[in-house]
Structure formats: structure tokens, C-alpha cells
Amino acid sequence: MFYEKYYEEYEIGESRTSEGRTITETDIVLHAGQTGDFYPHHMDAEWCKTQPFKERMAHGTLTFAIAAGLGAGDINSKAMTYGYEHLRFPRPVFIGDTLRATFTITEKKPHPRKTGFGIVTERTEVTNQRDETVLVCDHLHFVECQPK
Amino acid sequence: MFYEKYYEEYEIGESRTSEGRTITETDIVLHAGQTGDFYPHHMDAEWCKTQPFKERMAHGTLTFAIAAGLGAGDINSKAMTYGYEHLRFPRPVFIGDTLRATFTITEKKPHPRKTGFGIVTERTEVTNQRDETVLVCDHLHFVECQPK
Amino acid sequence: MFYEKYYEEYEIGESRTSEGRTITETDIVLHAGQTGDFYPHHMDAEWCKTQPFKERMAHGTLTFAIAAGLGAGDINSKAMTYGYEHLRFPRPVFIGDTLRATFTITEKKPHPRKTGFGIVTERTEVTNQRDETVLVCDHLHFVECQPK
Amino acid sequence: MFYEKYYEEYEIGESRTSEGRTITETDIVLHAGQTGDFYPHHMDAEWCKTQPFKERMAHGTLTFAIAAGLGAGDINSKAMTYGYEHLRFPRPVFIGDTLRATFTITEKKPHPRKTGFGIVTERTEVTNQRDETVLVCDHLHFVECQPK
Amino acid sequence: MFYEKYYEEYEIGESRTSEGRTITETDIVLHAGQTGDFYPHHMDAEWCKTQPFKERMAHGTLTFAIAAGLGAGDINSKAMTYGYEHLRFPRPVFIGDTLRATFTITEKKPHPRKTGFGIVTERTEVTNQRDETVLVCDHLHFVECQPK
Amino acid sequence: MFYEKYYEEYEIGESRTSEGRTITETDIVLHAGQTGDFYPHHMDAEWCKTQPFKERMAHGTLTFAIAAGLGAGDINSKAMTYGYEHLRFPRPVFIGDTLRATFTITEKKPHPRKTGFGIVTERTEVTNQRDETVLVCDHLHFVECQPK
Do D35 and C64 lie within an 8 Å CB cutoff? Predict the structure, then answer.
């Protein structure tokens, strides 16, 4: 559903946490199929046994896409995605891990060139069932200022 | 297949371009299903007709995941993904667009703290069949230095 | 997200309408694959041309499952599904149709045998982009009464 | 394949039982993706561990769709689906359960308004590998009477 | 459903024809995802425009797998697949083509070494909506002889 | 990526081996969905327990399609698929097996009727993690001869 929230209404520190979602073997197989990335890290259980991490792991782009999806609740019709910064994967995600994403407003500033718009930074942090961080990034939103 | 390429062997300006891939309605429906993002921008053709862009568009995370997949050829066993910076989506991707990714080494520097490793920046640029850029990002690789 | 709403708090006439969703060829192919129902009504475009409706149509169970999904927003932790009554498909759904579901509380009554619980009837009506009704049913919820 | 069976030819008590089908994690993940219902009951293994049922369970609409698919054998060209009544889910379906559906003609009556057609009720009952009933419903068929 | 048919009961010339099935873009995208074959012949509509056949075509293994599926009706519990010979793809299959498979018993002979078993050859021929042959192969069945 | 290799350049005995790929329950469920083959050998874990092989096994067409995909690396623009011979499945493939394909040039001969072209036979052999052969076939390539 749509709602309206202007640039001025975002507050540093605002935060929300998603439901959990268990990453399954199905997710990895489907993601390989969607992207064409069949690297043995994701698809060859025998090879993975010979590696330090021992198990098949999720593609980074899978974890990222699911994190974005976990945040896709109601839609602010005054905002759109501007981009992402500082995307990192501090730990691998394995089959059976349950992820949860926390979204926190960490910064806001007027757009340098487009008057009437601001950039709101929403830090995304994804943790697994052991509260270990598996993904962090800064999601930048391009948000309309309140009409004067 | 695996190969070995050390930090010292990357050269600024090295570049490769992927095969093309047409983004289909199927890709969008599957990506909504994988992520849980069923925003009307991707899933409601009637609503899209009322918007400036007129058509359903691909999720940003879909374009990003497919771009990463287009680059997933042979595997350098001396490198791993460190993260991504400056991910932007300059233009929307519509059903039927054919994407192609170019990967160019744009920067390299020793890792600030981990001796024996460097960070190699590979600029990813995705264009459509009209040579318009639809995605850019910097893919950072963590690469082993040559043994001394 | 979870919320709490007791039997007493439901009011006859309460209503909500979902976002729209366009039914694609992909949805039908995936549903055939999930269910094993490959009837020519859904999968054989040539045969469909010889029939009164001329086009491939969605499986009734697909329309029903998507209708249920369109209603799957926040979760009332005091309620669970009891069942469905009077499921009908007044008109076929074709590829490209955009569906929207309206959920209306139409009846409530104490459970005949389980004290402390009631049955709340939520009428589900799915319409297409021409405001034609393509599915109706009564979704029965088993809801906890307020503690006394 | 098509065959022809008129209203008069249905007999109360006729019954057939389907092959079995094991419900997999894949089925649940695909069904979440098809419907957009990512409720933790289906997708969050950690949360499920804290609930009475302990495990992820299939969506009701998944069990229903698969039941319908299990019955989709040869096609009676003299009949079409009229609707469903009394859909209930007496027990949850878990990953690894193997389902089998039994279809029994339980009632038939002339259509109240459309001369030359009758309504045939086919009771659908789905059981798991422990012979516990997990779904029941009445499938109503709209069937042509024999030409006079 | 299972039935029993012994080697002696197969007759040269016996034939059955499947229902039709339209090959969709979805089928090709899913098959690329299942196999990892993202060749531009299947996935790059722009490149295909520059080729003699002008359009994306189905993978040969997709047509073959669907042909096998079209023949997967009731199961002879006295037979199992022995292999396939002479698999050819006389014409390409394009998105929107509707395929139909005909299965004809063309040969039978006792197994050269295993007494009590025979090899029954079932010629599979797949045609499109213009009655052009797009796939042929000989499916060899290993069939039990009648007990003496 | 494309390369050029003429008939004369193929040498008997040339060989390459693919990366490994683990066959998952997901692969089997998706393949059933793609083909419509829901035989209990693949889909009914309870029935399989009563059979000699005890477990669900992959469809032969799934193993074949994945084998072909494992070989789909760079593309010789001077060759196209002519067909397949002698496709056999010496052992079943179970969920969790990791497959690897070896492709060896075993024969070449001028095309009997089309001057300037030859047929190159590439033997495909798929083995599992215990080095047991699960699929063999001869893939025939139709290859252009060097211009004179």
C-alpha cells in the first residue's frame, strides 16, 4: 500500500526489523538459475566439503535481493531508490540460515543539485539466527521535500 | 574453471564484455517470487500504464544479480568478492530489453591492513540494446599478492 | 508483522482492497508445474483457439492462491484459517488480466462448540481490470475472544 | 485425453485414488513465490521452532492446488468446474509428508435453473502417509445431461 | 497409475498421440536456469534477430524433456527405460509453437543376453502446429516377458 | 563467447571435464514441473521406500539436460548439434549426488552427402561422486570444414 512521507519527516535513528526468512537449497538453486552463476561455491556440495567453509553458500546477490525484499513493505510514493553504497558480506550464508533485516535511517542531506529533494540513507543490516551480521549496505533513497 | 591471477597481474584498463541477455517477464515474476517484492512497479501492468514509465520494470536487485551472473565466467582462485560500491540504476530496465555487461579494472591498491592482499576495483557497466547505461557499480575484489 | 485483534473487534462491513497483480503466462506455466495440471485449457494455445474462450486461461486454483496471497498482509496472532466456503469462478482469467482482491467482513458468530472462539467470515472478491468478478469465496477465520 | 460422461452416468459412491506426492521444501518456497505469502509459518524455520507445530507447514492453498492437480487426469468434455464447498484443513502438512487424494461422487442433483445440466459433487479427501486427513472439500461439477 | 503389459503384448504399429503443449518463453528461461545453458540462441533476442532463424529457439534438451513428459501417462510396471537412439532435431522450436508427440511401436526383439526380457522400440515424433517434425528419436524399453 | 574451430581441427582423444554439480530435490521438483512427468519414482518418497532403489531418483531427461548444460561453455560458431546416439543411464541419480561430465572426441568423418561438412562425435560421460557412470551418450556435431 502507498503512503506519503516527505524528506523532512525522516528521522535519524528510525528503525524497523523484518520478519525472518530461512534460506533454503531451493533459493540457491533458483538464484543460480536466474543469474547463470553456477559456481561450485553454490552448486557443488562435494567441492565445498574440501573448502574451509565446508558447505554450499548463498550467492551474495541472493542475500542482497532477499534483504531488499524483506524491506519491501508499504511504499512511500514520495521516495524512490537512488542507489546503494558499501555493500559488504561479512559472513557467508548457508542453507538453513534464517535471516532478518534491520533498516535504520542513518543520514539525510539535501540533494546537492536537485532543489526540493533530499537523499536519505537507510542502513540495511542482515543477521542470521546466531545474530551474526551477514550483509550490510547503505540504501540511498531520493525523497521529495515537503511542498512550501 | 579455475585459474590463478595474482594482485600484481591485474592491469588498469583491462576489460571484457559479456554475452547479451534478454530480460523477460519470466525473470521479473521469478524475482518477485524469490524476494517477496511484489511492488506494482514490477507486477501490475495496469498501474504502470498510469505512471510516467508506462510499463512494468525490472527490480534493481534483478538487474544487479543478472549483471553479476553475466560476469561469472572462469574463477580466479586467488580472489574473492570484497563488496560493491556506488551501485546506481541510471535508467529502468523493461521487459524485452537485452542487457550486456562490461567489466573494466579501474583501480587497485594494497589492502590497508592485511599484508599480502590487495583490493582490485572492477567497474561493472550494464547497457541495453540502445547502448543506454542501466546499471553501474564498482565490484571490489580481495586478491592475493604473488608469493615472494 | 503480527498484531492482535480479538473476535469482538471485527465489525461487519470492514473492508480492505489489495494492490493489483497482473497474471502472466509465467504464472500459469509455474502453476501447471506445481500442480501437475497441464490441461489444454491452460497449456495449449492452439486448442484454446478452437474453444469459445479462444485463449489460455488461469487454473482456478492459481487465481484462488493468488487471491489468498494478495490478502496476506499483517498477521493477526489471535486468528487462524478455519476454511473456505462457496468458492466460485464467475469468469475466466486470461493472461494479461490484472487482478485485485477485496476482503470484507460479512458475518461473525460464536463457535458452536468451542467456547471462547468465534468464526469470522471474510468475503473475498477478486475483480479484473474491467471490474468483472472472477472469483468469490468466503474465508472463515477461527478467532479468539477477548479474555474476560 | 478427453472422454464423454453425462450427468446420468455418474453414480454415487464411485471413487478413485491418486498416486502419492511428497511435499517438499521446494514446493513451499515456490508457492510462497507464486502467491506472495511469505508468512513465517511457511518460511521461517526458527520461528516455527517456537510454535506448537515446531516445523514449517505448507500453505493451505498449496495443499489445495496439489490436490486438484492430483485429480487432473483424463478430461470429461461434458463437465466443467462449478466451484468448491466446505474446504477444510484438519491437520497441517509438513515438509516430507506424502499426500494422496481420494475423489468420491457423493451427491448429484439437477441444476435448479439450467435445464439439461446437473451438479455432481465430488468429495476430495487428502491424506498423508499416516492416513491422517489433511484436506477435505466438495468439488462441484457442472455436467451436461444426456441428449434426449 | 500402474498397469501390466508384457513384451509379448506389444504390437508393431501401436500408436498413441499426446495432448498439445505450447512452448513458452517461460519454458526456455526455466530450462536455461535448470541446465546452465544461457547460449544466445535461447536467451538473447537481439542477437537472434541477426541470425537466419531470427528468433530465440528452445534448447534441444527442453524439447526432448517435454516430449518425454508428454508420453508419461500410465506406467507399465513390467517395463523400464533402456535408453534412446537416433535423437534428431529436424527443425527448431520457437516460442509460441505448440507441440504434440506421437509414440509408435516400431520394433521388438529379445534382449541378446538377458533371457526373459525384450527390447521394445517406441519411435517418438514431435510435431508443431504446422505438422512439421521438430524432434524424432527411438525410445528403447526394457520389458519383461510373460512368465511361462 | 564464440570461437572458430573447423572440422579438421578436432582430434580424436581431445577431452575436457566440467565442474561438478549437485543434483538437488529442487532440480527434480522443477523438472517434474517443466515436463509434467510426476511419476512416483521422482515424486513419491514413500513409494520409493518400497522399491529396490529406496529413494527418489532424477528423471533421465534431467540428467541428460544437466549434462548438456555442463558442456555449454564457449561456442564454436563453425559447429551445430546434429543429434545424439546411444543415450544410456547405467545407474540412477539420487538427490545429493554430485555429477561431473567428461566430453571426449571419439570419432570424426566427412558428412556422407553434404560436401564441406563433417560429423564429429563427442562422447559424453557423466559420473557421480563415487566415480560411477550414470549417463553416457554420443553427441554428434555438424562441423564446417576449413575453406580451401
Answer: no
Per-residue exposure over C59-72, b if at least 16 CB sit within 10 Å of its own CB, e if not: bbbbbbbbbbbbbb
Largest distance between two CA atoms of chain A: 63
Q: Is A88 exposed, middle or buried (0-12, 13-18, 19+ CB in 10 A)?
A: middle
pLDDT (average), residues A29-57: 97
Contacts of F148 (CB under 8 A, 6+ apart): none
Listed in sequence order, the residues at least 6 apart from D137 whose beta carbon sits closer than 8 Å to its beta carbon are D64, D67, D84, D85, D86, D87, D88, D123, D124
User: Nearest to residue B5, comparing CAs of B98, B87, B71, B75?
Assistant: B75
Query: In sequence order, what are the residues at sequence separation of 6 or more whose Cβ sits closer than 8 angstroms to the Cβ of residue A43?
Result: A28, A29, A32, A56, F19, F20, F21, F22
Radius of gyration of chain E (CA): 18
**Beta pairing partners, F125:** F102, F136
Which residues fall within 8 angstroms of residue C68, CB to CB, at 6 or more apart? C124, C139, D35, D37, D59, D60, D61
Helix (H) and strand (E) counts in chain C:
4, 8
Chains that touch C (3 or more CB pairs under 8 A): B, D, E, F
Q: Are C102 and B50 in contact (CB under 8 A)?
A: no
Contact E10, E143 (CB under 8 A): yes
Q: What is the pTM of this model?
A: 0.97
Segment A50-103, tens digit of pLDDT:
999 999 999 999 999 999 999 998 999 999 999 999 999 999 999 999 999 999
Q: Using alpha carbons, select from B26, D35, E84 the residue that is nearest to residue F34.
A: B26
Is the model's pLDDT at C96 over the cut of 90?
yes
The SS3 call for residue A60 is helix
Q: How many CB pairs under 8 A join A and D?
A: 34
Show residues of chain A in contact with B37, CB under 8 Å. 68-69, 72
Q: Quick one: closest CA in A to F129, which residue?
A: A46
Interface of D with B (CB under 8 A): 30, 32-34, 36, 38
Three-class secondary structure of residue D29 per DSSP:
helix
Rounded distance between C-alpha atoms, residue F50 and residue F78, angstroms: 50
Q: Does residue D86 have a pLDDT over 90?
A: yes
| pLDDT band with cut points at 50, 70 and 90 for residue C30 | very high
Dump the DSSP string for chain F. -EE---GGG--TT-EEEPPPEE--HHHHHHHHHHH----HHHH-HHHHHTSTT-S-B--HHHHHHHHHHHT--SEETTEEEEEEEEEE-SS--BTT-EEEEEEEEEEEEE-SSSTTEEEEEEEEEEE-TT--EEEEEEEEEEEEPPP-
Of B36, B75, B85, the CB nearest to A39: B75
Beta strands in B1-148 (DSSP E): 2-3, 15-17, 21-22, 75-76, 79-88, 98-110, 117-127, 133-144
- The low-confidence residues of chain E, meaning pLDDT below 70, are none
What are the chain D neighbours of F43 within 8 Å (beta carbons)?
Answer: 19-22
Tell me if A47 and F20 make a contact (CB, 8 A cut-off). Answer: yes
Measured CA to CA in angstroms, residue D31 lies from B33, B44, C26 at distances of 8, 19, 13
Alpha carbon distances (Å) from D132 to D52, D63, D89, D123, F36:
18, 14, 11, 16, 27
Q: What ipTM, to 2 d.p.?
A: 0.96
Set out the domains of chain D in order of their start, with CATH numbers: 2-144 (3.10.129.10)
Cβ distance C19 to B29 less than 8 Å, yes or no, reads no
| C-beta of residue A102 within 8 angstroms of C-beta of residue A15 | yes
